[in-house]
Amino acid sequence: MRASSIFSRFSVALIASAMLVACSSTPTEDDTSATDQQVERDADTRPVTPAEPTRPDYSHIPLTAEGYHNHPSHYDGTTNTRVIYFAFDRSEVPAAAFDSLRAHANHLKRNSNARIRLEGHTDERGTREYNVALGERRSKAVEQFLRVQGVSASQIETVSYGEEKPAARGSDEMSWAKNRRVELNYTAGRP
Q1: Residues 155/143, Cβ–Cβ less than 8 Å
Q2: Are 93 and 101 in contact (CB under 8 A)?
Q3: Dist CA 117 CA 186 (whole Å)
Q4: Contact of 142 with 93, CB cutoff 8 Å
Q5: Whole-angstrom Cα distance, residue 113 to residue 164?
Q6: Strands, DSSP E only, in 31-108?
């Protein structure tokens, strides 16, 4: 009797397994897209590790404001240009500003008593710490450009204000473009 009891339990388990297999179906397109969406949601909600940047993603915003700081007449190749504008989240000196910066370098080289302060600024997007660091990178990039042109390090001072001193108030691309800058301020020997 014991053997038949084991056999009947085994049969019941086998039949239940067969029913589960028979009831399962191939996933439909709707089922797979729902699963894909869940995977995407799970990926979006994973905790940020310290190695990942914690600043917001603004990649959908254009790098420059049309007609503002990309306009060639904005940099005149003389020391009259006292503001260098940068692309969003970038610290490379724009090629359009090279001639103006060369004119400043020539003035500084000819006048050893001249001193300049390079003030780095950013727009309001990003954390305060990130913006201070970005403003510093921008002012250091302009300093490096001037140093390559032969300007003495003792004539250059760099400072970063980050987002603290905006040139334009507003939360639109035109305002942000005006705030992404390095200002060249002479503290002595003004041209």
Answers
A1: no
A2: yes
A3: 6
A4: yes
A5: 30
A6: 83-85
- Residue 45 burial class via C-beta count within 10 angstroms: exposed 0-12, middle 13-18, buried 19 and up: exposed
Q: Which CATH number fits domain 72-188: 3.30.1330.60, 3.40.366.10, 3.40.50.9100, 3.40.50.2300?
A: 3.30.1330.60
Q: Is 49 buried (19+), middle (13-18) or exposed (0-12) by CB count in 10 A? A: exposed
pLDDT averaged over 10-residue windows placed end to end, the chain, 191 residues = 60 59 53 50 49 44 40 61 93 94 95 96 95 97 97 97 93 92 93 82
The domain ranges of the chain are: 72-188
Dist. CA 178–CA 69, nearest whole Å? 8
In angstroms, rounded to a whole number, what is the distance separating the alpha carbons of residues 119 and 158?
Answer: 6
Backbone angles phi, psi at 64, to 5 degrees: -130, 155
Token code pair at residue 9: 């339990």
Q: How far apart are CA 84 and CA 25, in angstroms?
A: 64
Q: At 162, is the secondary structure helix, strand, or coil?
A: strand
Instruction: For tokens 């910066």, name the residue.
Output: 101
Q: Does the pTM exceed 0.85?
A: no
Find where tokens 């897209």 sit.
33
